[in-house]
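quick one before i forget lol
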Amino acid sequence: MANFFDFFKSKRVHKFRFCLQRVWTGQFLETPRLVSMSLAITSLYAAILALLYVGLAGLVIRQRFKHRIGLGTGKDPRLLQTVRMHGNFAEYVPFLLILVALLELQQSPVWQVHLVAGLTLTGRVLHAIGLWRSSGTSAPRFFGMITTFAALIVAAVFLLMK
């Protein structure tokens, strides 16, 4: 009979009873890391940006096929434009998505996460439109880069304020 009571005094049973008590009283919901780890906003913008990335890659492929250039730009100015549109996108978007995800993981206000992600999306679309129109300077390209830099700066400030 002594072994029977010793079992109920063991650490395993105590931990089990503690866990059951937390579940019963609803205290398990108070753990912040278990509640918000889905990164829903980041996922939304990442999906949209991924589709844009594939679209830009498609433009590069179309130009390569049209001019029969497999590697490099072959001194074709239009191909160089599309390669840079795609490349510039690939240079900025991954880092910006990491910043958006960090904001979301830090449980920043939703408007801050949407602001940075929205600036990123807007900036990248404007930059692509501007570079598609002209290899020189253009208003959409200029505002696209300004918006992209604004997203970087705003995200950095929000994260530093946490």
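fyi The radius of gyration is 25 Å.
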